[in-house]
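Re: weekly structure request thread

Next one in the queue (345 aa):
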Amino acid sequence: MSQVEGSVGRSGRERPRGRAGLVSVAVLPFALAFLGELVVYAVLRDRLPGRIASHFGADGAADGYVGRGAYLVVGSALFVGLGAVAVFMVLKSGFGTYRRGLAGLLAGCWAAAAFLGWPMAASLVANRDLADGASARFPLWQLAVAVGVAAVAAGVGALLGLALARRMALSDVPAGGAARDADAVRLGLGDAEVAGWVRRTGSAWLGGLGAAMAGAGVALAWMQGEWTGSLVLVAAGLLVAAFARPCVTVDRRGLTVSPSALAWPRIRLPLDRIERADSESINAMADYGGWGYRVRPGRSGVIVRSGEALVVRRTSGKLFAVTVEDSATAAALLNTLVERRTAER
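Done, posted below.
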């Protein structure tokens, strides 16, 4: 008894240390990137113009400017914000719970910090010894260098992730959802009975995000007087907003997922393309890489939150999931309808 308690005690102390280590390694690249920017700024401070070129066009010519102090403020806000996102991903996403997920997460953090940090430091170098930032030039080969630096940084992050995973004895794959029954659960229906199931699900913050994206696209178009690039942001925002509150239907036609207020776009899986359905608990980030309409190797889905989901295995072997309440009833009815359709052939 005493040995068991001692083991639990050690495990309880190791977990916080492991969590702190994950956070530190995830935040470190952004701190280093900002430190690098500060060092370059300190070295070149007396050689920089009062107006620094901060944005460059495809031809390398400057087309955006900020003051010297503002350049540091923007840089600090960028890296602090990205560091906060990294902390959220480590603590809440589920990627930090298994070996490959942790390695990929830290590789992404280190790559992002390097890819952004290099151009910001290189932009300062491009402004040195100039009377005004308008004369600055940023050659495109600097972006190629940034990609190379990011690739090296990603390797460093992945190695650190694997080392931490070994130290924390993490498994190679995520724990996954609830175990599936050997026999898919079915809903009792008589031969002459018909049934349908409809449920609306959603996420208020996801709808707000979609509206914000679309609004930002409109604002950018208004400020720049050009719609081409902004249309992508507007379209993406509208798509996110459309699926922020989907309607999930199970009936004789199969499974249908569509926006609550619109008939399109919709996703329909007919009964003859469904092998079975289950109710599972999923993690939006770990299992599907985020929220909205997600596509991952071997699986796709409409994911508005983590938690209960209807997971359908297609006859092709691929999975489709939609997060919705009362998914057990939906899965049981869908299995019954699939079995009935198979018997009718």
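The chain has two domains: 2-168, 197-203+245-344. Residues 197-203+245-344 form a domain with the PH-domain like fold (CATH 2.30.29.30).
Next request, please.
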